[in-house]
UniProtKB/TrEMBL annotation:
Keywords: Hydrolase. It comes from Haloplanus salinus. GO terms for molecular function: fatty acyl-CoA hydrolase activity. This is Acyl-CoA thioesterase. It comes from the Archaea. InterPro entries: 4-hydroxybenzoyl-CoA_TE, HotDog_dom_sf. Transmembrane segments: none annotated.
């Protein structure tokens, strides 16, 4: 098992920058979200917008700035734990050979009609487990 079983690359856009010329701290959350979109499509075969999950926790530790000249960031992801209805994912945001940030999110699979959580589909659990 590796710490990060999935990677995706995202372009650093001019609009991502703040007045100081580096990627704004809030944009990192968007990078993580796009990485989840890619992961769900590539690994689980579903669109993140087609499933009922909510983000219940987000933690980001910033280590190094990302600037427009970096051109792209690599988001490395690894499932840390799988609960009955939740998934905890760890991330590294990399710019070149530098780790710009580390992060962790928790998502919960919810029932849109009843409210509250519901069990993760077994097929998803199997696919996530197979990469760990």
């Amino acid at each position: 098992m590796t710490d990060f079983e999935y990677e995706t690359e995202l372009q650093v856009r001019f609009r991502d920058l703040d007045a100081m010329g580096h990627v704004n701290n809030a944009v990192y959350a968007t990078y993580l979200e796009q990485a989840r979109v890619d992961y769900y499509a590539d690994v689980l075969g579903v669109g993140l917008d087609d499933i009922d999950t909510v983000l219940v926790n987000l933690e980001i530790d910033y280590r190094h700035e990302v600037v427009l000249d970096d051109e792209a960031v690599t988001i490395a992801m690894g499932v840390r734990s799988i609960g009955e209805s939740s998934v905890v994912v760890g991330y590294e945001v990399r710019a070149g050979d530098r780790v710009a940030a580390t992060a962790e999110t928790t998502q919960v699979y919810v029932d849109p009609d009843e409210g509250g959580s519901r069990p993760l589909p077994e097929a998803w659990v199997e696919k996530m487990e197979s990469l760990r």
